[in-house]
Amino acid sequence: MHLLTLGGRVKQVQPFKGFPPFDLGGEFIHGSNTVVNKIAHDSGWLVLPSSHCEDEEEGTKIYYKGKLHSLSSDQPEIKQARDTWSKIINSKYTCQDDEGESVSDSVQIRLEEKGLSRDVLDVIDWWKMKISAGSLVHYGVREGRRRMESKYEWGLGDFRLAESYSQLVKYYLDNSVHVDKRLNWQVKEVVWKGDDWSSSNLGGRILLRNQHGEVLTAKYVVITVPLTILQDGDITFIPALPVNKNAAINTIQMRGAWKIVCRFKHRFWPDKLQQIYSVRGFSSEIWTHSCDSPDSDVKCHVIVGFETAEPAEEKSVLSGQEVLDGFLSHLDEMFGTVSDPHPATDSIMDHVYFHWSNHPFIRGGYSSPTAHAYDLRHVLASPVEDRLFFAGEATSLRSCSTVPTAIETGTRVADEVCHSAGLNPCAKL
Ligand SMILES: Cc1cc2nc3c(=O)[nH]c(=O)nc-3n(C[C@H](O)[C@H](O)[C@H](O)COP(=O)(O)OP(=O)(O)OC[C@H]3O[C@@H](n4cnc5c(N)ncnc54)[C@H](O)[C@@H]3O)c2cc1C
């Protein structure tokens, strides 16, 4: 098994002494019925609802044109955005068939056909698309619907592991003690067929070469690198991957993402407020989190800022200080009052910021529902000549982009390899 780093996009930091680690990448379990919930249940881990507020009206807001609105607000642009999105994507409760089969798979084209204003388009973009790392320009209807269907299957609530996703990383390490794991082994070349291959003494095995020219051989290879790594051509395949595989790699979108975790001296936001979608804001999503110290009465008041897609990529050139300043100003604008105009700037204690586009071996957030990619997902996931296999979140045929779906693709590919090797399906971790 070749890994550059343990955990990949599951990564923790423990910036606030005495409190559990924070997840800088995957953090929530989207649903109550995923493979992660099952592992957590069987392992006896504490799983917490991400929101302590039962009432969504109070707990989740949209920040639009200087005001916090409820998700069911009658504010005209918000209402129009909600209704339009529901008609296009929410296939559970609405019938799309009345739109006919000839309509475009591009959400942007469909919305433009409806003649919606720029404001409504932006509300849809920031409220509905950024959370799946998508954006108006490339979001796909069919993939968006598939993502929605999976949400219903797994359950609509969001949860988190009390001790962070580090529990899951440890779980897999404990369950793979006999696996030969190599860190900092960057695969640069995969020779899997052709003249070089048959004239060598590889005995039908695939050759892998790393950044130092070191070589390993294997009968089957599973490629699980982020989509960006394949798009950027980090790995040379000899011979090249089939044309349709490359088309899938280059069509499916995986754009940038960053996260900032800020600790404040006191809580300056309303008690029940848990989550904000900020339209055209400095960060498109904001959530609050207050946790207790296991050893004392001290509270840790945290606000997390999160952004994906093109606006996130634009910030990849900013310094950490610039992002912190921009984020705090955004919070001041939202929560400042006449008597306390800069509540965030004045009460910041500490922070951690991480931009995933700048991670040398990830270079983005996660793949997003993409126009004209519905069938290409299957192409991306399919083995090449039963020798090269493909896993990782972008290859999920249910819903891309999450930790549980990444795990599911690993199980799928393990079964595919076993099948090719004439073995019984592998044990499921
Ligand atoms: C900011 C952020 C927030 C997120 N939030 C959530 C969330 O709340 N809930 C959720 O479920 N999911 C979330 N996700 C998504 C989730 O983290 C990912 O979908 C999932 O972890 C992807 O797992 P993976 O195994 O497909 O890829 P990765 O974890 O990225 O693993 C790929 C590995 O390939 C390695 N690699 C790269 N190049 C090479 C090479 N040439 N040779 C060898 N190895 C290489 C990388 O170092 C990495 O370790 C989030 C992601 C981000 C970035």
TrEMBL record:
GO terms for molecular function: oxidoreductase activity. InterPro entries: Amino_oxidase, FAD/NAD-bd_sf, Flavin_monoamine_oxidase. Residues 6-417 form the Amine oxidase domain. This is Amine oxidase domain-containing protein. It comes from Desmophyllum pertusum.
